[in-house]
Design goal:
Helix content: 40-55%
Number of domains: 1
Shape: elongated
Order of helices and strands: HHEE
Largest sheet: 2 strands, antiparallel
Mean pLDDT: 77
Strand content: under 5%
Number of strands: 2
Number of helices: 2
Structural class: mainly alpha
């Protein structure tokens, strides 16, 4: 084979190797962004397509994407434990 053609084939293999290595990372990043958008759509009352829910259900056990957020669950009341005691046995006071 001519040297020029051999050099071209080597460069093509190197490019494919680089694209393959970074291509997997890009695909994974795209999958994570996609599942995040599905979760956000569900969170704001939307109804994602069945295919999107199927992909999200497939990735759900990995716990990569979650609907948890700072305001995911808001409570309006908080239970507290109060310790009270008495020195004289008559009047209770918080300790």
């Amino acid at each position: 084979m001519p040297r020029r053609l051999v050099g071209c084939c080597r460069r093509t293999r190197e490019i494919r190797r680089r694209v393959g290595r970074y291509g997997r990372s890009r695909r994974l990043a795209l999958l994570i962004v996609f599942c995040s958008l599905v979760k956000m759509d569900e969170r704001f009352g939307g109804s994602p397509p069945d295919a999107a829910l199927a992909v999200d259900g497939w990735i759900e056990p990995l716990h990569i994407v979650s609907s948890y957020g700072l305001f995911a669950v808001m409570t309006t009341e908080r239970d507290e434990i109060v310790f009270e005691g008495s020195y004289d046995g008559v009047e209770l006071a918080r300790v």
